[in-house]
Amino acid sequence: MTMRGSAPESAGRASVRRSVIAGSWYPGDPSDLRATIEGLLARVKPQPLDGDLVGLIAPHAGYIYSGQVAAYAYAQLLAAAPAHTFSKVVVVSPVHRVYPGRFAVTDKAYYETPLGLVPVDAELIRAIERHVALNRVSQDMEHSLEIQLPFLQHVLGDFGLAPIMLGDQDWESAAALGRALAQAIGESPQSQGKTLLLASTDLSHFHPYEVAVKLDQLVLDRIAAYDPEGLALLLAMRKAEACGGGPVAAVLVAAQEMGANRAVVLKYMNSGDVTGDRGSVVGYAAAALVRS
Length: 292
Known about the structure:
Layout: E1 16-17, H1 30-42, E2 52-58, H2 63-80, E3 88-93, E4 103-106, E5 110-113, E6 116-119, H3 122-129, E7 135-137, H4 143-146, H5 149-156, E8 160-166, H6 171-187, E9 195-200, E10 205-207, H7 209-224, H8 228-236, H9 245-257, E11 262-270, H10 271-275, E12 281-291
Parallel strand pairs: 1-5, 2-9, 3-8, 3-9, 4-7
Antiparallel strand pairs: 2-12, 4-8, 5-6, 10-12, 11-12
Helix pairs in contact: 2-5, 3-6, 6-9, 7-8, 8-9
């Protein structure tokens, strides 16, 4: 369950992965953070998916840049309730700083944001580890995973988190992780039908507006075609860019193993649409993975 306020006394500060971006990438004050998320969600009308929501793709820049695009993903999660009440979330993120190994997970028991503590789902992590080796890390600065948590806390309230950082983004690694996630979820009665998959990614970086749009459309086309291997090949050949391309491919594989057969691109924008600077932009997209 999401813990409001401070960590339980039995947990101790050493068991909490403290926020590294509160107050910069998103508001550090709980009231301001809630108001920001509510405002972003209020400007989105969920699309009819004509099926069951299995997974999401969301961007991971600061909320002032990509928060509105992320809201398109999380609005679908709001629309899915109460038919699908997710009590567990697997967030697969890339790694932007120190290499933590092929697949990594925090060794902490909780993630902290201004909205409270999110418990790491030890049972689900152990289930994943039966299929792939996870490197336990005691400290990380990975913003692309943390940035998703306040939205999840606001929308879901209480949930258990499996925070997977993908250090190697080649196709073989992404496919192996995707299969492992689906197997772990399928083997756990507590996880079946209650686990949301979430891939964290931005798209092209620091190109002129028109170039970025063309590059990003190539990625969106592979997502819409539900082609994880094609996406991985596209990125490996450097024909397009997505800093979380591996996580997207892994989540597409896992969701497909769990019955998803369609990907719906919900929104695309880039930073130029927010700032007005079209000379050097970063691309953002939101998508839903659907079982119909």
